[in-house]
Design a protein that fits this description.
Blueprint lengths: L1 H6 L2 H5 L3 H8 L6 E9 L9 E2 L4 E2 L5 H13 L4 E5 L8 H9 L9 H9 L3 E3 L9 H8 L6 E2 L3 E3 L16 E9 L5 E11 L4 H4 L1 H4 L3 E3 L2 H14 L4 E6 L16 H4 L7 E3 L6 E2 L10 E2 L4 E2 L2 E6 L5 E10 L6 E11 L1 E2 L4 E2 L5 H6 L1 H11 L2 E5 L3 E2 L9 H18 L9 E5 L15 E2 L2 E4 H7 L5 E8 H11 L13 E3 L12 E3 L2 E4 L21 E6 L2 E2 L5 E7 H4 L13 E8 H15 L13 E3 L6 E7 L12 E6 L4 E6 L2
Helix pairs in contact: 5-13, 14-18
Length: about 650
C-alpha cells in the first residue's frame, strides 16, 4: 500500500481516491464482468401481500412476494446490487399506523427497514410521498436504514439556497466500493456511483410540511452538475434513481417526469425510475421515441420501472469491460419480473415468511386499528362507475368536506358564500389492476373503509373562487374524457386511460353537464390548448346559471389547493381555510356524526346526481371497468354490460 500511495498524485489523494486506487492495484484486472442491478419502487408500505381495505390476503402485490423474486434473481448471477426508489413509507394503513397511531419513536427502527435491512439493500432514493408525514418523521425513519439514502435536488431553504454554498437536505450521492467476480472466479474492484432525485413538485404537494424548510432544483440540471463530479471521484459506473416518470414528448424545466431527458446526461449508465406506477419496459411505451423495448433502453441507456407495491422486480443486466483501462458498459438489458400473471390470473411468487415474521407486531396493531367501527352505511359504497356517473364513494367525501367547511366558516367574513366541494375517485382500476376499486358492502363502516375511500393523508383546505374559476376547474377535470366524434364510429371509448382519476374532480354543490363532443380545453399540464372549446354546460347553483363573478368557497385538499395537477388558477393565494385536519379524519368525524343524528342510526351514501355526461345521438359511449361491477348494474339505469372480457375487466356502455 505504501508504494501505491507514493505513485499517486496529490490531486488524486485530494479527491479521496487513495484507498480505492490501491484496492484496484491489489486485485486482478479482467476483460469482462457481469453485474445485475435490481430495483423496487413505490412500495407504499405494502410489505405484506395483504389488502387492508378488503381485510384479506392477496397474491397480486407485496414486498414479501417480491423478496422471493429477489432471492431467485440473486441466485442466477455472481454479482448484484439492490436499490429502492422511494414512496416507501406512506400509502396504506400500516404506514399510517407507524406514523400516527403508534408513532415511531426516536431510536426505533421503522418496520420497513426491519425488513429491508435483512434483504441487503445497497442504497435507496427518497420519493415524494416520503414527505407526507413531515420532515421530522422522515429523518427519524431513515435513520433506521442500514443502507444509505440519496437525494441531490432538495436543498435546505436558507440564505445560501440559490448559490454555490447551498446545503443539501440529504446526502446527494454515494460511491459504493464493491468487488465483482468474473466468469473465472477472479475478483475485481469497482466504484459505483448512485445519485437520487425527487420531483420538485413536493414543494406544492406538501407545502404545509416543507415551506420555508427546503427548496427543490431541476432534476436534469442537478444531474449535469453532479454526475461529472462523481466520475471525477472515481465512479466507474453511475446509477441514477429518479423518483420520476417518463413522458412521451418534450418536458419543461422542473418537470415532474424527467426520465427521458435524464437518460441523455453524459456519464449515466443506468436509470432506475418509478413514481408513475407503470411498467418499463412494456408495450405501453412501444411508440415512445428513443425506446428499445427489446433491450429495455431509453436513448441507449438501460432503464427500468417495476410497477408499484412490489408487483414487479426491476432487473438491469450490465456487461462491463475494462480493456481500455477503465470499466465501460458494453452491453445492457433491462426487464421486469412480475409476481402475478394477470392473464392466467395466477401467482408467480410465494410470500417469503421473513417479512411476516419481522413485522408481526405491527401487522397485529394495524389490523386492530383498521377494524375499529366508525358508522353503519345503509347502502354499498363503490367506485366502479365513478368516472362516468356521480358516485357514492365521491359523494360521501364531498358531503363530509362541505359540512366541515360550513362549520369552520361560521363567524368569519366567508360565512356568506356558498360552500362547494371538490373530490375525486382514487381507486378506478386501470394501471392499478381491475381489483383496484372501492367496494364496501352495506353495513358497518370501519377505519379500513375510510382509508379505502380516501387513500392519501391529505389535509383539508378551502379556497375562495369566482364562478368563472369554478367552471375552469371543472373544464380541467373534464380532460379525463376522449373527444367523441358525432359522425364517427358507432361505439367510441369515452375515457382517456392516460388521465389520472385522482385529477378527475367533481364539484358538488353545483350541477352541470359535460359535452364530450367538444375538445378538451386544457392539456394535462394545465395549458389552454383549445380556447374556443367548452365542455362544461349548464353550470348552475340552486337551479340558476352560475355567474362568472359569483363567489364560492370550495373545499378541497392541500394537493389541489397548492397547485397539484396543474389546475388553472388554483394556488395558495386563493386559500382561505388552512385546516389542520386530514381529509380522512374529516370523513371519519362526519360519518360518526351522521350515524348518531340519523333516525335509523345509518349513513346514506347515495349520490345526488349533480353532474352527467351529455348523450351523443347516434354514438354508443363505451368504457371499461371491473367485471365485479356487474352486480350493481340494477342501481344504474344508464349503464349496461356490453362484454365481460374474462380477465377481471368488462366493457360497459353509458346509455342516453
Amino acid at each position: 500500500m505504501g508504494s501505491c500511495l507514493k505513485k499517486m498524485s496529490a490531486a488524486a489523494q485530494t479527491l479521496g481516491l487513495v484507498g480505492f486506487a490501491c484496492l484496484l492495484a491489489g486485485v486482478v484486472q479482467a476483460a469482462e464482468v457481469r453485474l445485475r442491478i435490481m430495483e423496487t419502487t413505490d412500495l407504499h408500505m405494502n410489505l405484506l401481500s395483504y389488502d387492508y381495505y378488503q381485510d384479506k390476503s392477496t397474491d397480486q402485490y407485496g414486498l414479501d412476494r417480491t423478496l422471493s423474486l429477489i432471492k431467485a434473481a440473486r441466485a442466477e448471477v455472481p454479482n448484484s446490487l439492490l436499490f429502492d426508489n422511494g414512496d416507501l413509507l406512506q400509502g396504506n394503513p400500516m404506514g399510517d399506523y407507524v406514523a400516527k397511531i403508534k408513532p415511531l419513536k426516536e431510536g426505533e427502527v421503522h418496520p420497513a427497514y426491519r425488513v429491508m435491512n435483512q434483504m441487503g439493500y445497497d442504497a435507496a432514493n427518497i420519493g415524494n410521498h416520503e414527505f407526507n408525514y413531515g420532515l421530522e418523521f422522515l429523518r427519524r425513519a431513515i435513520k433506521g436504514a442500514a443502507f444509505p439514502y440519496v437525494n441531490a435536488n432538495i436543498y435546505v431553504d436558507n440564505a445560501d439556497k440559490d448559490g454555490d454554498k447551498a446545503q443539501h437536505a440529504f446526502t446527494p450521492y454515494v460511491l459504493l466500493d464493491r468487488q465483482l467476480v468474473d466468469a473465472e472466479g477472479k475478483r475485481h474492484a469497482i466504484r459505483v456511483g448512485v445519485i437520487g432525485f425527487a420531483p420538485p413538485q413536493i414543494l406544492l404537494w406538501d407545502k404545509t410540511h416543507l415551506e420555508g424548510r427546503v427548496v427543490a432544483r431541476d432534476v436534469v440540471e442537478t444531474a449535469r452538475k453532479y454526475v461529472p463530479l462523481m466520475r471525477a471521484q472515481g465512479a466507474q459506473l453511475v446509477v441514477a434513481i429518479p423518483h420520476a416518470g417518463f413522458e412521451k414528448g418534450p418536458v419543461a424545466r422542473f418537470s415532474e417526469n424527467a426520465v427521458g431527458i435524464l437518460t441523455t446526461v453524459p456519464g449515466i449508465d443506468a436509470v432506475l425510475f418509478g413514481h408513475a406506477h407503470a411498467e418499463f419496459p412494456s408495450k405501453a411505451f412501444a411508440d415512445y421515441p428513443q425506446v428499445n423495448l427489446e433491450r429495455g433502453t431509453i436513448n441507449g441507456v438501460a432503464a427500468v420501472m417495476p410497477g408499484r407495491w412490489g408487483d414487479h422486480l426491476g432487473v438491469v443486466d450490465l456487461t462491463l469491460d475494462n480493456t481500455t483501462g477503465s470499466w465501460k458498459v458494453v452491453d445492457s438489458r433491462a426487464s421486469i419480473r412480475p409476481i402475478f400473471d394477470k392473464t392466467a390470473r395466477k401467482s408467480l411468487a410465494a410470500a417469503d415468511p421473513l417479512v411476516a415474521q419481522t413485522v408481526a407486531d405491527v401487522q397485529a396493531g394495524t389490523l386492530e386499528f383498521v377494524r375499529n367501527k366508525v358508522a353503519v352505511s345503509s347502502a354499498p359504497i363503490y367506485s366502479y362507475f365513478a368516472q362516468v356517473e356521480d358516485d357514492p364513494s365521491v359523494q360521501i367525501v364531498a358531503n363530509a368536506q362541505i359540512a366541515y367547511v360550513k362549520r369552520a366558516m361560521q363567524g368569519t367574513d366567508y360565512e356568506k358564500y356558498p360552500v362547494l366541494s371538490a373530490a375525486a375517485p382514487f381507486k378506478t382500476g386501470g394501471r392499478q389492476g381491475w381489483d383496484y376499486y372501492t367496494d364496501i358492502p352495506a353495513g358497518p363502516l370501519a377505519i379500513k373503509n375510510v382509508a379505502d375511500l380516501y387513500v392519501y393523508p391529505n389535509t383539508l383546505k378551502a379556497m375562495l373562487l369566482t364562478g368563472a374559476e369554478v367552471q375552469e376547474w371543472i373544464e380541467m377535470s373534464a380532460g379525463q374524457f376522449n373527444r367523441i366524434d358525432p359522425k364517427g364510429a358507432a361505439m367510441q371509448s369515452v375515457l382517456d386511460t392516460n388521465f389520472r382519476s385522482f385529477n378527475f374532480d367533481t364539484l358538488d354543490g353545483v350541477s352541470y353537464e359535460i359535452d364530450v363532443t367538444q375538445a378538451a380545453r386544457y392539456d394535462t399540464n394545465g395549458k389552454l390548448v383549445a380556447p374556443d372549446a367548452h365542455r362544461v354546460k349548464n353550470l348552475r347553483f340552486q337551479g340558476q346559471p352560475v355567474q362568472p363573478d359569483a363567489k364560492f368557497v370550495v373545499a378541497t385538499n392541500n394537493y389541489r389547493a397548492y397547485g397539484g395537477g396543474n389546475f388553472p388558477g388554483l394556488n395558495a393565494s386563493k386559500v382561505v381555510l388552512e385546516a389542520p385536519d386530514e381529509n380522512r379524519q374529516v370523513l371519519i368525524e362526519y360519518l360518526r356524526m351522521m350515524d348518531t343524528l340519523s333516525a335509523n342510526k345509518q349513513v346514506n351514501p347515495s349520490a345526488d346526481g349533480n353532474w352527467r355526461i351529455t348523450p351523443v345521438p347516434g354514438v354508443r359511449l363505451g368504457f371499461s371497468s371491473a367485471s365485479a361491477a356487474q352486480r350493481y348494474l340494477a342501481n344504474h339505469p344508464r349503464i349496461k354490460l356490453v362484454k365481460d372480457n374474462g380477465d377481471g375487466s368488462a366493457l360497459y356502455e353509458l346509455l342516453p
